[in-house]
Every structure is written in structure tokens, then in C-alpha cells.
Specification:
The protein is about 5% helix and about 65% strand. The chain is mainly beta and about 290 residues long. It has a single domain, classed as Beta Barrel (Lipocalin), CATH 2.40.128.130. The strands form 2 sheets. Strands 1-3-4-6-7-8-9-12-13-16-17-18 form a 12-stranded antiparallel barrel. A hairpin with a 4-residue loop joins strand 10 and strand 11. About 35% of the residues are buried.
């Protein structure tokens, strides 16, 4: 019983010291369509999230602590020609604020993400696409070992992702994607500079998109995430993630770009903070 209590305390500490993931690997409904070679693009993404519950091994932890996050992502990219197939590259950096209910806010820069995506198969006639992407997250975010919340993870992360998109009817399409993320070591975790390690984390996502009117679409997405057990100084903490979440998306296309409004949250989580709700506003322009 004492060992279990010790593990619960450590897991509780871990979930307090790290800000919840931003899910940068989420593919937006319809985005697996192969882009035009030579295209440049820029996206601005504003996200507001509320976290009001914390779980350890599926049990809600006592207390009324909670926090909110506000994030602004700036993403720029280009589509190259790779043997007459599109090769997309982008770089993304967030600016974020974390506002705990019982502490001062934390402001700063988050970790920078890089993506290189390739479409081995892209059939515009049948509207069927298959893509493969590789991500790298560099530890550029603000990190302090004495903070309760941090915007950066102080470690490199890498991920591989593959996805397929195809039509359901002449006005709707489905998308399925799978990704796995691998984590480097954080050798400066906590004030004692403990060694924090994390096992690979896998996410499956599926979405259905429907064209309401020309240029206007609605979509629903479902996500399942599993894995990611952490180890502190080589001691396994048995805190694997098992997370179910959803997201609803409305998109409108205009002459000046594309605007999307999204709402979602966690349905169930085993370990960590539960994201009760999130609101995302996206603007994308192509040139």
C-alpha cells in the first residue's frame, strides 16, 4: 500500500509539472488531400483549453485545482517537387500562457515542430490519397526545473504518421490516420535533476467530413491514444496514457483563405489532466 501511494504521489507530481500535450499531430479533416506542388502556406492557430480534473490510474484526484491554457501557433511551409509528387515541409512555433487557479501565470515559447510529409499515392480523379509524415520537436520551449508548469519538455521528440483519405459519397469523405511518437530523455526533471524517460505514445484518429454547401464543410473526429508510460531514474511508474477524445470542425473557404472553428475535449482519460473543453480558431492562406 505504501508503494502504491508513493507511485500515486509521483504520478500526481508529474502531471502537475508538465503542461498537457498540444496534440500537434492532429490531422485536420480533409487535409490529407495532396497539396499543389510549389505552393506556400501560412497558418495561424489560436487555441483555448480548460483542465479541471486530474486522474491517476483512472481515479479522480481530490482537490479543486485547475488551469487554463492559451496558445497561438504560427505555421509556415512550402510544397516541393519530389519526382513529380508533393513533398510538404512546415515549421511551427507556439506562444503560450498557462493560468493555474492557485498560482501565477506562466508565459513564453513552446517547443518548435518540423514536419516533412510525402504522398506516395495521390489520385485526384478518385479523390483518394495516402501520405506519410515525419515530425521532429526541438526543445526550444521555456523550461525551468522549479516551475509547477512548463511550456517546453526539455527533450527532443520524433514521430512517424501515416494516413489515408477517400470519398464516402460525392459530398462526404472519410480519413484515418495513425502515428507513434518517441521521446528523448529529460535529464533535468525537477529540482533534483532526475532522469525522466517516456515510452512511445500511439494515436489513432478517424474523421468524417461533409460538404454542406460549396466552400462550407462540417466534420466530426474521434481520437484514441495509448502508451507513453514514464520512468523516473529508471523506475517505471505504471502511468500509461489511455485517452479518448473528440473534436467537431466547421470550415469555410474565402478568397482570402480558409477559416476553421473547432470544439472538442476528452471523453475519458486514465492518467493526467482531463481537457474538459477546447476551442480552436484556425486561419490558413495559400500563395
Amino acid at each position: 500500500m505504501l508503494i502504491r501511494h508513493r507511485y500515486a504521489c509521483i504520478i500526481s507530481l508529474l502531471t502537475s509539472l508538465l503542461v498537457a500535450p498540444t496534440w500537434a499531430l492532429d490531422i485536420q479533416p480533409g487535409d490529407l488531400r495532396a497539396p499543389k506542388i510549389g505552393m506556400n502556406f501560412m497558418q495561424l492557430i489560436a487555441q483555448q483549453s480548460e483542465f479541471k480534473e486530474r486522474y491517476v490510474n483512472g481515479k479522480l484526484q481530490p482537490g479543486d485545482s485547475q488551469f487554463e491554457t492559451s496558445q497561438l501557433f504560427v505555421r509556415v511551409g512550402h510544397v516541393f517537387d519530389a519526382a513529380e509528387k508533393p513533398l510538404l515541409f512546415f515549421v511551427q512555433t507556439p506562444v503560450a500562457t498557462v493560468q493555474p487557479s492557485d498560482q501565477d501565470s506562466v508565459n513564453g515559447i513552446g517547443d518548435t515542430a518540423f514536419l516533412l510529409a510525402f504522398w506516395p499515392y495521390a489520385n485526384s480523379e478518385t479523390q483518394t490519397y495516402f501520405s506519410v509524415g515525419a515530425y521532429l520537436f526541438a526543445p526550444t520551449g521555456n523550461y525551468h526545473d522549479d516551475r509547477s508548469f512548463n511550456l517546453g519538455e526539455n527533450r527532443y521528440r520524433g514521430a512517424l504518421q501515416m494516413g489515408v483519405q477517400a470519398p464516402l459519397t460525392h459530398r462526404s469523405r472519410w480519413m484515418l490516420a495513425l502515428d507513434t511518437m518517441w521521446y528523448g530523455e529529460n535529464a533535468e526533471f525537477g529540482q533534483r535533476h532526475n532522469l525522466l524517460e517516456k515510452a512511445p505514445l500511439t494515436t489513432a484518429q478517424v474523421s468524417v467530413q461533409y460538404d454542406v454547401l460549396p466552400g462550407y464543410t462540417l466534420a466530426a473526429s474521434y481520437f484514441y491514444t495509448v502508451g507513453g508510460e514514464t520512468s523516473l531514474n529508471a523506475v517505471r511508474l505504471h502511468d500509461s496514457t489511455e485517452l479518448y477524445r473528440y473534436q467537431l470542425t466547421g470550415t469555410a473557404r474565402f478568397s482570402f483563405g480558409r477559416i476553421s472553428l473547432q470544439y472538442g475535449g476528452d471523453l475519458e482519460t486514465k492518467n493526467g489532466w482531463r481537457e474538459n473543453n477546447r476551442l480552436i480558431l484556425r486561419y490558413a492562406t495559400y500563395f
